């Protein structure tokens, strides 16, 4: 059903591009961008992701054009290759040319809005269910958790394609523009929620910890990055600030359950938003 390499490849020969909690991204001259999941992620899980990607590309092939293949490494990790794209990501371009910051943020927003304009596909996971389960697992007091769930229950469900983990390091140059990759968390839901998740990851994630080796500069640049990205999103679609604040609260709580490095900051954010009734 899927193209598979008869001989497992050696990860050591690949160029590291970026890493996430559940996978690493590499570049290989023969296979393009390689998204390799952690050990323990079974082939059947990668197969399901490939099924969803196939459905997405079949419906929106003129927008998303990456060819894919399922891979297996010598240490028995499974992953996907995205062929036809180069090793340079949007983040790489920004690092090399930081003076083009505005153009970088605009590309980040435009490519995201392009995805969020797509009608949802019935077979995709439902964003509302994913968020509800994460909120329930979040390591915060039950009283806070219940208040967040109450807010969440009042929000629109939505029926658009949402990437689920959209960041600049998963946009790769194809010679003319940028291709979005790594659709492992793709779902159907509310676009503002997907934008809020990206905003949170940009503002509070690793980018805020360190950039060019300076933590203070990274934190400042991260806020500027997130705010500028959001400004460009607002130029494309209507975003109500009050509703967006609620999605920030919801997605920050859900993100806490993922046990990420920014969890302490997100816990403080959730507590502060609930104290000020900003999202009730």
Can you put this structure into words, describing what you see?
This protein has helices spanning 43-59, 90-96, 101-116, 127-137, 142-153, 191-204, 206-209, 215-236, 241-256, 263-275, and strands spanning 15-19, 23-28, 32-37, 67-72, 78-83, 160-162, 171-173, 178-180, 187-189. The protein is α+β, with helices and mostly antiparallel strands and 280 residues long. Helix 2 packs antiparallel against helix 3. Residues 1-6 have low confidence and may be disordered.
Highlighted features:
single chain, 280 residues, alpha+beta, Phosphorylase Kinase, domain 1, Aminoglycoside 3'-phosphotransferase, Chain: A, domain 2, 2 domains, five-stranded antiparallel β-sheet, 10 helices
Write the layout of secondary structure elements.
Blueprint: E1 15-19, E2 23-28, E3 32-37, H1 43-59, E4 67-72, E5 78-83, H2 90-96, H3 101-116, H4 127-137, H5 142-153, E6 160-162, E7 171-173, E8 178-180, E9 187-189, H6 191-204, H7 206-209, H8 215-236, H9 241-256, H10 263-275
Antiparallel strand pairs: 1-2, 2-3, 3-5, 4-5, 6-9, 7-8
Helix pairs in contact: 2-3, 3-8, 4-9, 5-9, 6-8, 6-9, 9-10
């Amino acid at each position: 059903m899927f193209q598979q390499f008869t001989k497992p490849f050696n990860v050591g020969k690949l160029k590291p591009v970026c890493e996430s909690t559940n996978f690493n991204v590499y570049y290989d001259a023969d296979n393009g961008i390689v998204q390799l999941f952690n050990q323990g992620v079974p082939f059947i899980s990668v197969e399901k992701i490939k099924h969803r990607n196939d459905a997405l590309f079949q419906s929106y092939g003129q927008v998303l054009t990456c060819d894919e293949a399922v891979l297996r490494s010598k240490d028995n990790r499974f992953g996907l290759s995205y062929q036809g794209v180069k090793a340079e990501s949007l983040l790489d371009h920004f690092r090399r040319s930081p003076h083009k910051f505005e153009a970088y943020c605009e590309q980040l927003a435009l490519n995201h809005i392009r995805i969020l304009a797509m009608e949802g596909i019935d077979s995709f996971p439902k964003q509302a269910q994913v968020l509800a389960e994460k909120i329930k697992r979040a390591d915060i007091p039950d009283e806070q958790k219940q208040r967040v769930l109450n807010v969440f229950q009042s929000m629109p469900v939505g029926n658009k394609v949402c990437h689920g983990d959209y960041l600049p390091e998963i946009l790769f140059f194809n010679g003319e523009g940028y291709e979005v990759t790594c659709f492992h968390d793709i779902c159907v839901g509310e676009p503002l929620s997907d934008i809020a998740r990206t905003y949170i990851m940009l503002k509070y994630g690793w980018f805020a910890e360190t950039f060019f080796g300076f933590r203070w500069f990274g934190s400042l640049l991260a806020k500027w990055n997130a705010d500028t990205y959001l400004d460009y999103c607002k130029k494309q679609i209507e975003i109500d600030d009050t509703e967006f604040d609620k999605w920030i609260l919801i997605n920050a709580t859900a993100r806490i359950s993922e046990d990420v490095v920014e969890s302490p900051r997100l816990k403080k954010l959730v507590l502060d938003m609930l104290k000020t009734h900003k999202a009730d």
